[in-house]
Amino acid sequence: MKVLVTGAKGQLGRALVATAPAGAEVHAVGHADCDLTDAPAITALVHEVAPDIVINAAAYTAVDKAEGDEETARAINADAVATLVAAHPGKLVHVSTDFVFDGQSSRAYRPDDSRAPLSAYGRTKAEGEDHLRPADLLLRTAWVYAASGDNFVRTMLRLMAEKSALNVVADQIGAPTWATGLAKTIWGLVGKDASGTYHHSDAGVASWYDFAVAIQEEARAMGLLTEMIPINPITTAEYPTPARRPAFSLLDSSKTRELLDDGYTHWRLNLWHMLREEKALG
């Protein structure tokens, strides 16, 4: 099975390469290999590699920057998906986001729930989803992090080492997702020849404040931090950002778990695994 993976330098792209199953011939490409705003370059790459499957792990993920740069976000998050679909007759596995929802649900979002994005990032990701064919695979996820990546966990570790106290938003609710677990789920779905829409995030529920508290506790116990600092819960209104974020974006991944029969892993356990990797990296 020959697989083309885009976004190879990102958190998920690296995890996909690291967890690829035996027998998968992975061709991983990053921005330096192919500019996803360049449709002819995308088409040429797909024709050159001639993969059986394309996993599109690339995205414009600068949520706040996208508010003033929606054209570029659309080129990467939507137009590039259309180009991949046109160039590749086989299955496209596309990774999307909880930001396609408006956060008004009273329960975890199911794969077939209506979308109502609040931000430019969310709109462009929803547009990308609309380019997929029935035989393609769409997997939505949320709050992704990994060792050595640019993410909330590593930002918190840095700030906890630098600051005497932190304020963290406590009224946005979801669940973190370890990139390694997400990658394994993608490969599992590929192995099942799944198509349609699925969700994946780690089990459990958290606010960003809950997540920050857990990061500090686990990192201190592991020796990544030398002392504990106060972490204060604040509201979204007290921390305004250019992009509106869903207040509630928990994803229902029961369809995914039932298909793969792999059980649920709580986000705090995966946080512990990630921090062990972070410590090993020095």
TrEMBL record:
Keywords: NADP, Oxidoreductase
InterPro entries: dTDP_dehydrorham_reduct (IPR005913), NAD(P)-bd_dom_sf (IPR036291), RmlD-like-bd (IPR029903)
Catalytically driven reaction(s): dTDP-beta-L-rhamnose + NADP(+) = dTDP-4-dehydro-beta-L-rhamnose + NADPH + H(+)
Cofactor names: Mg(2+)
GO molecular function annotation: dTDP-4-dehydrorhamnose reductase activity
Record-listed E.C. numbers: 1.1.1.133
Residue ranges annotated for the RmlD-like substrate binding domain, each copy included: 1-277
Pathway listed: Carbohydrate biosynthesis; dTDP-L-rhamnose biosynthesis
Cofactor note: Binds 1 Mg(2+) ion per monomer.
Pfam families: RmlD_sub_bind
NCBIfam families in alphabetical order: rmlD
PANTHER family: DTDP-4-DEHYDRORHAMNOSE REDUCTASE (PTHR10491), METHIONINE ADENOSYLTRANSFERASE 2 SUBUNIT BETA (PTHR10491:SF4)
UniProt family annotation: Belongs to the dTDP-4-dehydrorhamnose reductase family.
Role of this protein: Catalyzes the reduction of dTDP-6-deoxy-L-lyxo-4-hexulose to yield dTDP-L-rhamnose.
Protein name: dTDP-4-dehydrorhamnose reductase
Taxonomic source organism: Aurantiacibacter gilvus
The encoding gene: rfbD
